[in-house]
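stage 2 :: seqdesign
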């Protein structure tokens, strides 16, 4: 009888241990997205060697992302500020956190470039660009360099030749043809490495198109902006393009000498392009919560509408501005949401927030 009782106790303890392991140590193919940081941009931006030390400021906001264990999944089901996302929707099909980090690093660098350019352009200050090479955005499955190149690497030369645009790069590769070998020199985490492989037949959507041979990568130009006024942005581990708009306002305020935040705490989000347009981003419902929790009085959100293709896939999609306002109303947050269409419109509106 005693042995039976002891057996039941052991079985019970084992069951508790299994549940504990499943709840805390086993991760599932999901990620939890939640309100992330809301940080004053004066800690990331220096203009002419100085930081903005005035009261208040501009704040970037971010979405927190973590792998899902059992406890996190249950918590997210009952927390209106969190959401459960499929792994492939967060890191891409077949992707991982490292790949996502590299892609987000590129988008952050591009965002910083655009922010500096747009702030200088609006302030009437001169600037130019340094060409750094070709940035690798993705690699095809049949690429002969798939085992050695990584998303986020910068190609600095082909067969020892440097190029000034992505078009020059493509034209050189296309001139080699079937059976040719090519040596690619890349900069990976600050170090240069060279690899030699044969070109492969490229995949093309149009089956009637002429056969083309290449190295099987999707690329874009990698540049860095230069100006007479030294401007540095050091965002650390923060990645992605969504802080572009707020970086621009922080830099513009300093290079122009205008007081835009008037001692207020102004948060926001949105991409910035070379036309000064503020673009739609993901996770705005989490970001406005982060801003409200940090005590910001205002939150700027893009008014850009979803595309026809996006609406076809999900007819419920709205602009970031509409989503942020709905979140504030639903959760009764103490923050005012303001529209952001383009840089000039947003700055004009900021000047009224005295």
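stage 2 :: out
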């Amino acid at each position: 009888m005693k042995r039976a009782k002891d057996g039941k106790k052991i079985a019970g303890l084992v069951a508790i241990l299994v549940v504990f392991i499943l709840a805390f140590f086993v991760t599932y193919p999901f990620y939890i997205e939640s309100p992330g940081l809301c940080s004053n941009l004066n800690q990331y931006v220096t203009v002419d060697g100085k930081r903005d030390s005035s009261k208040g400021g501009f704040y970037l906001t971010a979405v927190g992302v973590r792998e899902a264990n059992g406890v996190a999944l249950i918590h997210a089901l009952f927390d209106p500020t969190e959401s459960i996302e499929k792994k492939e929707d967060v890191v891409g099909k077949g992707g991982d956190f490292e790949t996502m980090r590299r892609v987000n690093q590129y988008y952050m660098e591009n965002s910083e470039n655009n922010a500096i350019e747009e702030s200088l352009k609006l302030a009437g200050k001169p600037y130019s660009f340094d060409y750094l090479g070709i940035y690798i955005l993705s690699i095809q499955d049949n690429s002969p360099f798939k085992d050695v190149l990584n998303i986020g690497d910068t190609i600095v030369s082909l067969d020892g030749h440097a190029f000034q645009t992505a078009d020059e790069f493509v034209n050189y590769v296309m001139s080699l043809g079937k059976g040719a070998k090519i040596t690619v020199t890349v900069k990976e985490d600050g170090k240069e490495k060279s690899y030699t492989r044969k070109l492969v037949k490229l995949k093309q959507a149009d089956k009637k198109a002429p056969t083309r041979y290449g190295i099987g990568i999707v690329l874009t130009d990698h540049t860095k902006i230069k100006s007479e006024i030294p401007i540095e942005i050091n965002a650390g581990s923060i990645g992605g393009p969504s802080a572009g708009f707020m970086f621009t306002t922080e830099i513009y305020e300093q290079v122009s000498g205008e007081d835009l935040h008037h001692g207020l705490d102004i948060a926001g989000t949105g991409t910035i392009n070379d036309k000064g347009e503020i673009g739609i981003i993901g996770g705005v419902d989490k970001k406005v919560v982060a801003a409200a929790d940090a005590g910001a009085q205002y939150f700027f959100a893009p008014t850009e509408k979803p595309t026809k293709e996006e609406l076809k896939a999900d007819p419920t999609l709205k602009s970031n501005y509409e989503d942020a306002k709905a979140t504030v109303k639903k959760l009764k947050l103490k923050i005012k949401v303001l529209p952001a269409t383009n840089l000039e419109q947003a700055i004009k509106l900021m000047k009224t927030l005295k």
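stage 3 :: structure notes
- The mean pLDDT is 86.
- The radius of gyration is 25 Å.
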